[in-house]
Every structure is written in C-alpha cells, then in structure tokens.
C-alpha cells in the first residue's frame, strides 16, 4: 500500500467521510524553499494537493471526526493498472492509427488522420475502462488508520508562575 496523509473534512453519510489530502515535503529544503525545486513545482501546481475524496470509514474501530488526521492507502496493483490505462492505451491507439493510415493510404495526411482517429478511440477506451475500474475496485483506496494527535503538555505549562 502506498500511504498518504489526509485530514477529515466532514462526515458525509453513515460510514463515509470526506477527506482532503495534504502535501508531503520530500526533505527539509522544501520548507526552506531552496534545494531541488520540488517546492517550486508544488507552488506551480497546487491542484495536485488538497484533493477531496469520499471514503468509507465504517471498518475503523474509532470513526474519524472532522479535523482528525488519517492515513489513506492506495493499492499498488490498482495504481499500476490505472497508470497503464491512462498512458499506454492512448499511445498505442495513436501509433496503431498512424501505422494503419500509412499502410492503407500510403500518404502522410492519411497517417496523421489515422493517428488522430486512433488517439480518439484510445481516449474513449480510457473513459470506458476507468469507469469499469472505479466500480470494480472500490476498496483500492481506503482509510488505513486514524493518527493520534501528538500533543504533549508539561507540568510546567500547567502551573502558574509567580514573579
């Protein structure tokens, strides 16, 4: 399982919660906005983070409440299948259509048109395949655990200090 931290936004229905993913920094230089440039990329594409997901939480011993931090898990096999579907199918459609257009007509124009037709068929296949994969694998993304808050209180902070 690939793990990602998220924060519970609200309870949607009985056993379902809406969570918002959080950005993870790779190392201490991201916070300093120097180094490899990952923080710059995260600032340029903020839509990748803060994704809203509705996930089942009925299997947990303690259901998460709004504001709790949870760890969501994504099945690696499911992620590989979705990635293959999203990237390979349109590419294969584009290449197959271009080759078929070249073989049938022998001109560059028919090769381009065949490639566009193959790409279109590939994109429609992605839409159909993604809909099937989403209904077939509802447990591929799930809440693994609720993280306990790490708040510590010392006795010195509780007793009043007299000056």
Q: Into which percent range does the helicity of residues fall?
A: 40-55%
Strand order of the largest sheet: 3-2-1-4-5
- Proportion of beta-strand residues: 15-25%
Count the DSSP helices.
5
The radius of gyration computed from the alpha-carbon positions, rounded to a whole number of angstroms, is 24 Å
Secondary structure class reads: alpha+beta
What is the averaged pLDDT score?
A: 77
Low-confidence stretches: none
Number of strands: 5
SSE sequence, one letter per element = EEHHEEHHEH
- What's the story with the biggest beta sheet? 5 strands, antiparallel
Shape call? elongated
- Distance between the ends: 54 Å
Give a verbal description of the structure:
With 163 residues, the protein is an alpha+beta fold. It has a domain at 75-150. The chain is built from 5 helices and 5 strands, in the order E-E-H-H-E-E-H-H-E-H. It has helices spanning 28-31, 38-44, 76-105, 108-136, 155-158, and strands at residues 2-13, 16-21, 52-56, 69-74, 141-147. It has a 5-stranded antiparallel sheet. Strand 1 and strand 2 (16-21) form a beta hairpin. It is elongated and about 85 Å long. The mean pLDDT is 77.
